[in-house]
Design a protein that fits this description.
By secondary structure, the protein is mainly alpha-helical. The protein has 13 helices and 10 strands. The protein has a 3-stranded mixed beta sheet with strand order 1-3-4, with helices on both faces. Strands 8-9-10 form a 3-stranded antiparallel beta sheet, with no helix packed on it. A two-stranded antiparallel ribbon has the order 2-6. Strand 3, helix 9 and strand 4 form a beta-alpha-beta unit. It starts with 17 loop residues before the first helix and ends with a helix.
């Protein structure tokens, strides 16, 4: 039609007004089509075109929704395929659970049947054994009566032995007491006899001096009688007599002073002897502990004896086993140390020098084949070991001190115990502490170990859950450390002995000086007598 009518569709000037040509030239293909439809088309062409566009857009959206639903359906089908296997597994599990439930229901009955069978067998055996026992009892009835008589006699004898043992023990204690009293009285009698002997010797010496003086006086009197009387010499003789009396008076005072000093020396000897006896008794306590070590571990005991004879070969100090170096301030507190420190460490030697430790082990273990323990003390100063919680903060719980405050020992031993057992951080309490255990644990999270009057408490905290678990140990009675020597008293006695020895030396020196003065005075008297003659 466009050819027949010579219509150029592309030439807008042919069918559009002139003023619309410019507007149509700026339109896109879609806009141009729509406006062309509006300009030359029928009334419903444009509306139909719009409906067609909307239908196309809606169809596109429906296709997208359809594709999405198809994809979702496929996914759900895949899920269903997986769930089918899970459902089968679940159904199979339920089946097994039902079987388990049934078996559990059957188990008590089967166990009952098994136990009933065993009970029947055992009951049968019991009845048979009862018959056998009855027969044996009938046969053993006469012997049982004899055994009862013997047991009664044995009980009576044991009681008699117990009474005799008690009597012997009491007698031994009485004998020991009497023995100590005898030793004391013997020492006292010896002192009295020594003093009496000295007094006798002094008296004899005085008698000799008097006899000698009388002899000299007699000689002088004889000489004086034989000498003609000269009135001119009489004043000089009287002057000499006055000097002799003065010197004699001084000599008497010197002898008196000398005798007084000698009495003081005797008193010092008695005091020193008493101190030595007290010191010996303290050393006997140390020997008791050494004998206890001998009973518990003979190898360590032999090593101690060797060390005492060969201590000079070491560069530094080598301390005897810890149990021999610990002195309890109160023997009743020994149970805390003995329950807490292992016996292997209590019997350990403590070295301050690593070379000394190697040498000791070489000499004792390798050469003498003795099994001993040896440790080296830490290099830190003793002031390094301080408690985390001051004791005054723990007083309210009934704690009286830390474990290290209960005993004395060499510094090297104390440093080892602080490092190994934390004795400087473990508080010791009383019965009041026992009633506050829960409060102590809750309010002191850093406190891992503490003691009450008769128990040890150890607290551990779980690394994962943070929960605390508490273990309680009853303290056993002390055996190794119950006999402790009083180191303070021992030191005081040693100081008293040294002081007494020094004072005695001073007094003896003064006695020698007085004796020299006495000799000088006697020489003076002799010279005056010669002048008188």
């Amino acid at each position: 039609m466009t050819l027949r009518l010579r219509i150029q569709v592309g030439n807008l000037c042919q069918f559009l007004p002139q003023e619309k040509v410019a507007d149509f030239s700026r339109m896109s293909q879609q806009e141009l089509l729509e406006n062309t439809e509006k300009a030359v088309g029928s009334e419903d062409m444009y509306e139909t075109h719009m409906l067609l566009k909307q239908a196309r857009t809606k169809a596109r959206l429906l296709n997208q929704a359809y594709d999405s639903l198809v994809e979702h359906v496929n996914q759900e089908k895949q899920k269903n395929n997986h769930l089918e296997q899970d459902v089968r597994n679940f159904e199979e599990g339920q089946k097994y659970l039902e079987q388990i439930k049934m078996l559990r229901m059957k188990r008590p009955w089967l166990e009952y049947e098994e136990q009933r069978r065993k009970y029947t067998d055992v009951k049968k055996e019991k009845d048979e054994m009862a018959k056998v026992v009855e027969g044996l009892q009938s046969a053993a009835a006469p012997m049982k009566k004899e055994l009862q008589v013997v047991q009664n006699s044995l009980t009576k004898t044991n009681q008699q032995l117990k009474n005799i043992s008690t009597c012997i023990s009491d007698t031994n204690k009485a004998i020991e007491k009497i023995k100590k009293q005898i030793e004391y009285e013997t020492d006292k009698a010896t002192e009295v006899l020594d003093d009496l002997k000295y007094k006798k010797q002094e008296e004899e010496q005085n008698r000799k001096s008097v006899r000698e003086l009388k002899r000299q006086v007699g000689t002088l009197e004889n000489r004086l009688a034989s000498i003609p009387t000269n009135d001119d010499n009489q004043p000089a003789i009287e002057q000499i007599n006055v000097k002799i009396q003065q010197v004699s008076l001084q000599l008497t005072k010197l002898h008196s002073h000398k005798s007084s000093i000698h009495d003081e020396i005797k008193s010092l000897d008695i005091s020193m002897r008493d101190h030595i006896q007290d010191l010996k008794r303290l050393h006997d306590i140390a020997n008791i502990r050494l004998q206890a070590l001998r009973e518990k571990h003979k190898n360590t005991y032999m090593a101690v004896l060797w060390l005492r004879e060969n201590s000079n070969i070491f560069k530094g100090a080598v301390h005897e086993p810890i149990m021999l170096n610990i002195n309890m301030k109160n023997p009743s507190d020994a149970k805390f140390i003995e329950s807490f420190v292992s016996f292997n460490d209590l019997r350990s030697f403590v070295c301050e020098n690593a070379d000394d430790m190697d040498l000791l082990l070489s000499k004792i273990r390798d050469e003498q084949k003795l099994k001993i323990n040896c440790v080296k003390c830490p290099s830190q100063d003793i002031s390094y070991f301080r408690p985390r919680i001051p004791i005054h903060n723990l007083k309210k719980y009934g704690f009286r001190c830390f474990l290290k405050d209960l005993f004395d020992c060499p510094e090297a031993v104390m440093k080892f115990l602080c490092m190994q057992y934390k004795v400087h951080m473990i508080p010791v309490g009383n019965e009041d502490s026992k009633s506050k255990v829960d409060q102590i644990i809750n309010e002191n999270p850093t406190l891992n170990v503490f003691f009450t009057a008769n128990n040890q408490y150890s607290i551990k905290t779980s690394t994962y859950s943070g929960q605390k678990s508490t273990r309680n140990y009853t303290l056993r009675d002390a055996y190794l450390l119950k006999n402790s020597s009083d180191t303070i008293k021992e030191k005081r006695l040693q100081e008293e002995i040294q002081k007494t020895q020094h004072l005695k030396s001073v007094k003896e020196e003064e006695t020698r000086r007085l004796q020299q003065e006495c000799d000088q005075q006697e020489n003076t008297i002799n010279e005056l007598r010669k002048q008188k003659v």
